[in-house]
Task: inverse folding
């Protein structure tokens, strides 16, 4: 059984994109997924838990994103009687859309190269 699992794992290739904009500013699959989960859950805390990260780590990533772009990416409301929450802004939605489109195009454009590299892998 372990061999079948190992073989199945070897047959899965993936392409991960990280964009570096300089000055320590970057955007990759983790930040994008965090934004998507905030959109789904309405909560930075819940999104962080889903990614197995602390609220502080999730909050710091959102603070980085909000500082990186001209307009806020996520707006948070302070907790209280009705509870807090977080909302992905129109800018945040556009960032997700552009990144996922870029990711899809890169995957499509690199399929043959990935297959070529896989053929060269050791058994």
Result:
């Amino acid at each position: 059984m372990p061999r079948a699992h190992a073989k199945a794992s070897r047959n899965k290739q993936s392409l991960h994109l990280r964009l570096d904009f300089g000055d320590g500013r970057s955007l990759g699959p983790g930040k994008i997924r965090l934004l998507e989960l905030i959109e789904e859950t309405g909560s930075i805390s819940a999104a962080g838990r889903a990614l197995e990260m602390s609220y502080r780590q999730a909050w710091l990533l959102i603070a980085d994103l909000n500082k990186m772009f001209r307009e806020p990416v996520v707006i948070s409301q302070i907790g209280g009687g009705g509870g807090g929450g977080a909302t992905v802004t129109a800018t945040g939605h556009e960032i997700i859309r552009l990144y996922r489109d870029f990711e899809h195009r890169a995957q499509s454009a690199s399929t043959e190269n990935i297959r070529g590299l896989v053929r060269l892998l050791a058994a």
Observations:
- The helical segments are 2-10, 29-41, 44-50, 55-68, 90-120.
- The chain has five helices and four strands.
